[in-house]
Amino acid sequence: MKHPLFPWQSPTEAEARASSRLASAKGTIATITALGLALSGCSSDEPPKKSYTAPTTLCGAAVPPDTLTAVLPPGKELRTELSKPGDLRSICHVYIDDDQVLAAQYDWRLKKRTIFDAAPALLELDPHKDVNPEKTFGYTEKGGVTKVSCPNPAKSEYKTWQLFAYIITYEDEGTKEDMKNLVAAYGKGVTESSECTGEGRTT
Predict the structure, then answer these.
(1) Nearest CA to 184 among 117, 118, 132, 109?
(2) Please, are residues 104 and 120 in contact by the beta-carbon 8 Å criterion?
């Protein structure tokens, strides 16, 4: 006797229906899996990469590439451009993908000038937190400034002047310690550059 709620089916019909349902379920799972893979590819958690190669100098002042890279943002191409607004100043502009991200500069100033006179207002140096006891070096996350030892300047008249070097960054990359390392390295690089070794000296 047939059950009124479950009509009788032959074994062949039941197997066919079960096989159809299984195939449909597999197709649905495959579709969901493919969609999940596509979405995961679009929303990758990998951080942007620094694909460029950092230079070994900032327009003639030697700087370790990893020290420079630490404060630079991600990007594909890096280039530097030197400008000299006057005899007393030299600026090395750093661009990544054609956006300026950093400037490294040195200035000649009168002997009595301090790092507070030389530092751009953007640095916002706190004399109690951001400056060494000798008042010769100061830095924040935005950049830093240092007095530069230059006993043999390219122009002899500069022997009665003081040289300052500083870094300004336009990006929020790296830490305050990273910036300290870069400013120190850049100051050392300027000391060892042609500006302070007497090469090409003019009188």
Answers:
(1) 132
(2) no
